[in-house]
């Protein structure tokens, strides 16, 4: 899977292969996170995917449990015309420095899917 991404305040956006990275990357480190921790999380999450899949968007979510770290991923295969196979994945880390993550939710996105996220953040 692709490893070219931009991170801003807990969200990571994967860049298409043909698009060059931005000249000046935005600040990538939230105040509450250790340096490189978000990159480590992305690497571990990519290991959950099939080889043909790519993360299109990864957003760190607020968790009801203080130590748990949660992400919402938009994932789809890299081949042309694979938009019909897009899915939302919920990924959990037991704590900030966890060396593995678990898949907590898989939601396929169909052409008529509507997703509503409830909460204040």
Commentary on this structure:
- This protein has 121 residues and is mostly beta strands.
- Helices cover 8% and strands 33% of the residues.
- The chain has one domain (4-14, 32-109): Nuclear Transport Factor 2, Chain: A (Roll).
- Strands 1-2-3-4-5-6 form a 6-stranded antiparallel β-sheet, covered by helices on one side.
- β5 (87-93) and β6 (102-108) form a beta hairpin.
- The radius of gyration is 14 Å and the shape is globular.
- The two termini are 29 Å apart.
- The relative contact order is 0.17.
Category from helices, strands and their pairing = mainly beta
CATH class designation? Alpha Beta
Count of all domains:
1
Assign an overall shape.
globular
Pfam families: PH_SSH1-like_1st (PF23040)
InterPro entries: Phosphatase_SSH-like, SSH-N
Protein name: SSH phosphatase
GO molecular function: actin binding; phosphatase activity
Describe what is shown at a glance.
This protein has 121 residues and is mainly beta. It contains 1 helix and 6 strands; from the N terminus they run E-E-H-E-E-E-E.
Break the fold down into its secondary structure elements and pairings.
Layout: E1 5-8, E2 11-14, H1 37-46, E3 53-61, E4 69-77, E5 87-93, E6 102-108
Antiparallel strand pairs: 1-2, 2-3, 3-4, 4-5, 5-6
């Amino acid at each position: 899977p692709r490893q070219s991404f931009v991170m801003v305040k807990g969200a990571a956006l994967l860049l298409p292969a043909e698009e060059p990275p931005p000249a000046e990357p935005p600040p990538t480190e939230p105040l509450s996170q250790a340096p490189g921790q978000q990159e480590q999380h992305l690497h571990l999450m990519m290991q959950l995917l099939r080889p043909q899949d790519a993360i299109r968007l990864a957003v760190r979510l607020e968790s009801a449990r203080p130590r748990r770290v949660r992400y919402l991923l938009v994932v789809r295969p890299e081949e042309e015309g694979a938009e019909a196979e897009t899915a939302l994945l919920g990924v959990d880390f037991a704590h900030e420095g966890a060396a593995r993550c678990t898949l907590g939710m898989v939601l396929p996105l169909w052409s008529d899917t509507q997703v509503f996220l409830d909460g204040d953040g």
